[in-house]
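User: Can you help me understand a structure? I only have the sequence.
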Amino acid sequence: MYFILLKVIIGIQFALIFLQKESVNSALYVLFDIVFKISLGLFLMVFFFAEKFNGIHVIDRYIISLAGGLLFFDALTGSVPKFLSKYGIALPSWWPIQKS
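Assistant: Let's start by predicting it. Here is the structure, written out as tokens:
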């Protein structure tokens, strides 16, 4: 239900962007983008790494889990800096990417 709610919210925002009522740079869109990417990334990493599936080869499970890690990494290095810069919050010096 959680992912369905997030997909509906993203879908509504996509419609608003398509109708030019909102932009992809709006704080609300970026926030939900962060939440969706982090949630889906963590789900893919944990679920496919921990569960055993009869029809999926072990290497394929690791690749899907890695894809979840990439989504998580994309949220933290792409969307989070964009969101924080909207509010004038400086990123710490150890953050991998300083500007988005």
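Now, to help you interpret it: The chain has a mean pLDDT of 84. The chain is about 70% helix and 0% strand. Let me know which part you'd like to focus on.
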